[in-house]
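User: tokens in, sequence out, please.
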């Protein structure tokens, strides 16, 4: 039997403070966004910057750790799998969200760097015409 592989690793900065909720059964779930930047030079030598935003979902004990220790702007390593969620709003509008379901988290950088990264994330988001505050998950 052949097996598939669904694994993602990202290093970036938190776009907002983590938000923790509990399922009806009492299981903790924490969500946050991570901005991952990349830079490249085009054929004409022009430098380009691009930021990709990832929605991250963390469950169980790791969810509690993320809520307790992570803050907006902090650099973090996340490992997990990609998951696509589909739902329909009360108005009948269909939605799709791709998220990283994290199984590993490692805090990177210096804790005092988080406030400096706040400004970096906000300025990168403004350059790309997006908001550093992402939509909430409909839990």
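Assistant: Sequence out:
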């Amino acid at each position: 039997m052949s097996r598939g592989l669904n694994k993602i690793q990202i290093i970036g900065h938190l776009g907002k403070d983590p938000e923790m909720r509990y399922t009806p059964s009492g299981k903790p779930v924490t969500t946050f966004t991570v901005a991952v930047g990349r830079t490249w030079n085009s054929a004409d030598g022009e430098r380009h910057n691009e930021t990709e935003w990832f929605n991250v979902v963390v469950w169980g004990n790791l969810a509690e750790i993320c809520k307790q220790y992570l803050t907006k702007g902090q650099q973090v390593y996340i490992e997990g799998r990609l998951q696509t969620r589909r739902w329909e709003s009360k108005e009948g509008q269909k939605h799709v969200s791709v998220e990283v379901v994290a199984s590993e988290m490692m805090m990177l950088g210096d804790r005092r760097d988080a406030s400096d990264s706040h400004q970096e994330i906000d300025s990168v988001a403004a350059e790309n015409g997006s908001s550093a505050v992402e939509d909430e998950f409909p839990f």
